[in-house]
């Protein structure tokens, strides 16, 4: 699947740059293009200039400055309403026809990104009717989660993008952050890499790759599009696999070896489930997708079948698509997507807290009788 990635605001721009690096890696390792172009949109010229080192696949677009006195997402929305058409005109629209989907990226807690993302999504959907528009929303860190403006912006951003985008990938900053990110000197860069990394195998496996990478059941672009709807979580997990594994087509007394390899696939799946981008219950997902990546010499039919059966169990026989891909060397990796999720504690919590804030503000503004 080829994407046009559009990052809005500081967070969105940094992640858009990270998608450029992911695209370069896919080209180097699999010989496929998964990124048509990345754009970073911001009102901060210094932030945009810092992103240019990502390469020529990233283009930056400066917006007029948001009102200094306002940190609320309505200001970002108004800014995008006034400038969205000009921004789209600045983009290389001819390249949009090469893309299979748009991916818009923003933080939910700020001003420019949280307010602007749903406005830009709506404008793109109006112009490119048959092109899916997905959103990747990064929720606030714990230190920001109790700031009233941040809570309000997040609730408003989630409410508006849910009504606009075809699917919304939610990333809980606290959940995604790993020990490696925390210890890293460049914690934000490490965190951005972890946010983008789960998309790598999925995007390249859906493109026309060298036949040596093809599994027994291939995931196509249509499988991804049909699997994405509404609130969505993505997870990725790995498990080291022995180098002396056996081919799918070899015969002999190798049941024990094949059983061990199947266990490795299930270990990778368990890791992916524990590393979902946001805490969710699989039984609340109406759609799901899985991708198993293993070395071709280690593959056997039971590996993908076991992952698929487990997904159907977890989703109570929901709509599950999946496949396998032989594009790795010494490990088993599983990418999982839970989509059309009907209930998320995190989203409900932001809606409730924002509602309480609005009521309290109304009471303060109402003069006494």
What form results from the Cα inertia axes?
globular
Distance between the termini: 62 Å
* Mean of pLDDT: 87
Secondary structure category:
alpha/beta
Q: Overview of this structure, please?
A:
- The chain has 369 residues and is α/β, with parallel strands linked by helices.
- It folds into two domains: 3-205, Rossmann fold (3-Layer(aba) Sandwich), CATH 3.40.50; 232-341, Tubulin/FtsZ, C-terminal domain (60s Ribosomal Protein L30, Chain: A, 2-Layer Sandwich), CATH 3.30.1330.
- Helix content is 46%, strand content 21%.
- It is built from 14 helices and ten strands.
- The protein has helices at 9-30, 45-51, 73-90, 93-96, 112-127, 148-164, 173-176, 179-183, 187-196, 200-205, 221-227, 255-274, 301-314, 345-365; strands spanning 3-8, 35-42, 58-62, 101-107, 133-139, 167-172, 230-240, 285-293, 319-325, 331-341.
- The chain has a ten-stranded mixed β-sheet, with helices on both faces.
- α12 (255-274) runs parallel beside α13.
Layout of helices and strands, plus pairs?
Layout: E1 3-8, H1 9-30, E2 35-42, H2 45-51, E3 58-62, H3 73-90, H4 93-96, E4 101-107, H5 112-127, E5 133-139, H6 148-164, E6 167-172, H7 173-176, H8 179-183, H9 187-196, H10 200-205, H11 221-227, E7 230-240, H12 255-274, E8 285-293, H13 301-314, E9 319-325, E10 331-341, H14 345-365
Helix pairs in contact: 1-9, 3-5, 5-6, 6-14, 12-13
């Amino acid at each position: 699947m080829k994407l046009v990635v559009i990052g809005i605001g500081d967070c969105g721009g940094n992640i858009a740059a990270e998608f450029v690096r992911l695209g370069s890696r896919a080209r180097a390792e699999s010989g496929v293009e998964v990124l048509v172009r990345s754009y970073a949109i911001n009102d901060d010229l210094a932030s945009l200039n810092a992103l240019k080192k990502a390469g020529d696949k990233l283009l930056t677009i400066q917006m007029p400055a948001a009102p200094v006195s306002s940190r609320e997402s309505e200001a970002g929305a108004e800014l995008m309403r006034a400038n969205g058409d000009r921004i789209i005109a600045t983009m290389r629209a001819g390249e949009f026809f090469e893309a299979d989907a748009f991916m818009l990226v923003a933080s939910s807690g700020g001003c420019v990104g949280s307010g602007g993302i749903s406005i830009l999504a709506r404008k793109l959907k109006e112009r490119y009717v048959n092109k899916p528009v997905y959103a990747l929303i990064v929720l606030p860190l714990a230190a920001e989660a109790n700031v009233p403006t941040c809570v309000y912006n997040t609730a408003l951003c989630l409410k508006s993008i849910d009504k606009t985008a075809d699917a919304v990938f939610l990333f809980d900053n606290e959940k995604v952050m790993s020990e490696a990110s925390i210890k890293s000197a460049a914690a934000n860069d490490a965190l951005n890499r972890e946010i983008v990394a789960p998309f790598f195998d999925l995007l390249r496996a859906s493109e026309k790759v060298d036949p040596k990478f093809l599994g027994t059941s291939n995931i196509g672009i249509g499988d991804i599009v049909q699997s994405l709807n509404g609130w969505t979580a993505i997870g990725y997990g790995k498990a080291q696999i022995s180098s002396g594994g056996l081919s799918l087509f070899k015969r002999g007394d190798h049941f024990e070896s094949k059983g061990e390899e199947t266990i490795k696939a299930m270990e990778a799946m368990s890791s992916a489930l524990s590393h979902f981008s946001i805490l969710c219950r699989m039984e609340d997902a109406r759609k799901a997708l899985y991708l198993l990546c293993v070395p071709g010499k280690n593959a056997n039919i039971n590996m993908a079948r076991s992952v698929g059966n487990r997904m159907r169990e977890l989703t109570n026989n929901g709509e599950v698509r999946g496949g396998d891909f032989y594009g790795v060397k010494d490990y088993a990796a599983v990418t999982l997507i839970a989509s059309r999720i009907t209930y998320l504690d995190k989203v409900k919590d932001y809606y409730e807290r924002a509602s309480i804030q609005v009521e309290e503000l109304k009471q303060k503004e109402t003069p006494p009788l």
